[in-house]
Amino acid sequence: MWDVIQSWLSVSLFIKKRWVGYLIAAGIYGLILILPMPGVETEARLCLGVFGVAVFLWGTSLLPLPVTAILVLFLLPFSGAVSSQDTYAYFGNRAVFFILGAFILSSPILRSGLSTRIALAVVSRFGNTPAKLIGSILGLSAVLSCFISAHAVAAMLFPIVLEVVRASGSKPGGRFGLVAFLALAWGVVIGSNTTLLGGARGPLALGILYNTTGDKITFLQWTIWAAPLVILLLVVAYGLLFVMLQGEEVSLKGALRFLEARNNQLGQISQREKLTAGLMVGTIALWVAVGDTWGLETVAFLSVSVAFIIGIAQWREVEEDVNWGVVLMYGSAIALSASLETTGAASALTQLLLGAGIGSPLLIFGIVVLMALTLTEFMSNAAAVAALLPVALALAQKYGIDPRAITLGVVIPAGLGFMLPVSTPALAIAVSSGFVRPPAVIRWGIWLDVIGYLVFLGMSKFYWPLVGLKW
Amino acid sequence: MLLILTNPYAYEKALNLAIERAAQKPDELKVVFVIDPDALDNLVRELGEKGWLGLGSQRTLHDSMLEGYRALAADILEDVRRLCAAAHISVVTEVKEAPLVAYIRIIIERDNQPILVSGSQYLATTMLTRHLTGFEDVRALVEWIQED
Predict the structure, then answer these.
(1) Residue B135: how many CA atoms within 13 Å on its side-chain side?
(2) Most A-contacting residue of B34, B44, B57 (CB-CB within 10 A), to test interface
(3) Is B120 within 8 Å of A103 when comparing Cβ atoms?
(4) N or C: which end of chain A has fewer CB within 10 A?
(5) A229 to chain B nearest CA, in Å?
(6) Measured distance CA(A435)–CA(A43) in Å, rounded
(7) What is the least distance, in Å, from the CA of B62 to any CA of chain A?
(8) Residue B139 zone, left/alpha/beta (φ > 0; ψ -120 to 50; rest)
(9) Which parts pass through the membrane (chain A) (predicted)?
């Protein structure tokens, strides 16, 4: 079974041989260079060629995402689209360092045992009936994903949910196991949209937005603008899980015994856990209060420095806990979007799209949201943002849409992949448990996709203007 | 007769076929659930890449998935023993942690007997077109039962 899930994750279903994929990538590059595009400068055309290759490779995962990023960093200056000085200057964007700081800060949360303690406390405190247990897994996953990368939360909670499911006597094919793992996956997917910490795609989008337009979205603004969607989707998700659970008889005695035993194993809260909790509260307070003036990345690095000075972070652990490829992928995506903007490639692409004859900003916004939601089902969240946002920002400029609104219109739907494990590692993790059949993910996930789309459009039209985002 | 199971979601078709054949012969049925550590390694690596998981999180996932899968395999084999007992068939069960291809080759080279392998279409295709190419003697003795 793992081989099947891995095959979904690794290579497009349509490309059976890698070398065919590389030929297609080269073909895309060549085609963009020879296509007639009147009025488009050579640099813009070269940049579009690199963009086409990057979107194809990110979309199909023919190469690991960071390797495609390196290819982009090579191709941009080598092809003559932009100078190497500009390429690497764009790479050193503030958003990249914010992502890095946030990832480093999540290390002591995971390593100190704080996150496990919180998880066990919540699940054992509130999970005394199956419906409440599922609700607590869903809510806990969502809340933790506000502070730590969603997929790290899924990896952390996976053993706990697995033990709970097994201790309840649930067997493969049983609905309790399915519902528990879907609660985990859906919880992290939905919750990760609440703050800039839940997924690195948020900071990536901010980096592209700032480089392209000079606009910013603060830590607090992000949460205020995204929160209603998160809350509504959590309610819908709980409703769906509740429906799925109906008629399933489960004894939680074993599960509660396991949770109690694990709680006892943890003992008293340690000094490291207390300091970690204090540092995280302080960091979030600083992000909210002075993030705009100091810079989110400066606050992140201040907290990282403090974490090492007071001894709650260890470099050896950080080296293991941070996936350093994220720096390459995100820096390169930002460099590519900046190059699209400065060479005029984004504008040229928009002109081509304008030929479709759509005149309504609302319709354009709806299409962009739908594209983000669709793309993210077939490629990673970050790749969907990197592929779509530069074009969406150029469209926003032409149609007079607030660039911050279109940024959220791409990045939040790109984080709402509920149907296929391709885009969402949390779903792949749930399927890998052996308790969740892939058809069940699609059958129930499509409801969240459709409802998420409608709720997002409604929120952007009627709620955002009330909280300072008119478009 | 040897039946190899690889997927906890779907194994009924192969199991029913094995029970049916075992009922026709006085053979003992052996059912092995193979957990392929290479497949797990690959999956966790891909998940790490897509989800930007560090090595620490990857290790947590790897260990707990493996542990969970051992328990699942034990559950499934218990089910197999129950079904075989109901059909009055003698059965031996085992959980094996080994790369599937290597395991199949070893078994066939040792016993030179046909075996039933239950799995997905993807597994059958990759096995036959990639891993077992050039091993015609092995391929001839493997009967793939593609589960829905």
Answers:
(1) 17
(2) B57
(3) no
(4) C
(5) 22
(6) 51
(7) 9
(8) alpha
(9) 20-39, 46-76, 88-110, 131-158, 178-198, 219-245, 298-316, 322-340, 352-372, 378-396, 408-432, 444-464
pLDDT in tens, B2-29: 999 988 877 888 898 898 888 887 778 8
Pairwise CA distance, residues A151 & A317, whole Å: 18
- Comparing alpha-carbon positions, the chain A residue that sits nearest to B43 is A6
Architecture of domain B2-146: 3-Layer(aba) Sandwich (3.40)
Q: Which residue of B has its CA nearest to A330?
A: B52
Residue holding tokens 């304008």?
A354
Which range marks the domain in which residue A79 is found? 2-467
CA distances from A30 to A35, A353, A424 (A): 9, 20, 32
Tell whether B42 is within 8 A of chain A (Cβ).
Answer: yes
Q: With an 8 Å Cβ cutoff, are A166 and B71 in contact?
A: yes
Rounded to an integer, what distance in angstroms lies between the CA atom of residue A387 and that of residue A342? 16
Contact between B61 and A321 using a beta-carbon 8 Å cutoff: no
Check residue A80 and give its pLDDT: 94
Cβ separation A425–B50 shorter than 8 A: yes
* Domain count of the fold of chain A: 1
β-strand partners of B31: B3, B93
- Give average pLDDT by consecutive 10-residue segment, chain B, 148 residues: 86 88 83 91 86 88 89 89 91 92 86 85 69 67 80
CA distance B88 to chain A (A): 24
Q: Summarize pLDDT for A182-224 with one digit per residue, the tens.
A: 999 999 999 999 999 988 889 999 999 998 899 999 999 999 9
The larger pLDDT score, comparing residue A434 to residue A233, is at A233
**Closest Cα of chain B to A172: distance in Å?**
7
Please check whether residue A158 touches B, CB under 8 A.
yes
Is B43 in Cβ contact with A433 (below 8 Å)?
A: no
Please give the mean pLDDT across all residues of chain B.
Answer: 85
**pLDDT value for A432:** 84
Residue A13 pLDDT > 60: no
- Please give the average per-residue pLDDT across A320-326, as a whole number: 89
Residue B146 pairs with which residues in a beta bridge?
Answer: B119
Q: A415, A286, A369, A342: which is closest to A90 by C-alpha? A: A342
Contact at CB, B9 and A173, closer than 8 angstroms: yes
Instruction: Quote the ipTM score.
Output: 0.80
Domain positions in chain B: 2-146
User: Residue A403 carries which side chain, given as an amino acid letter?
Assistant: P
**Helix %, strand %, coil % for chain B, to 5?**
60, 20, 20
Residue B32: strand pairing partners: B4, B94
> Quick check: A152 and B51 CB within 8 A?
yes
Q: Is A110 on the interface with B (CB under 8 A)?
A: yes
Q: In this structure, what are the phi and psi dihedrals at residue A324, rounded to the nearest 5 degrees?
A: -70, -15
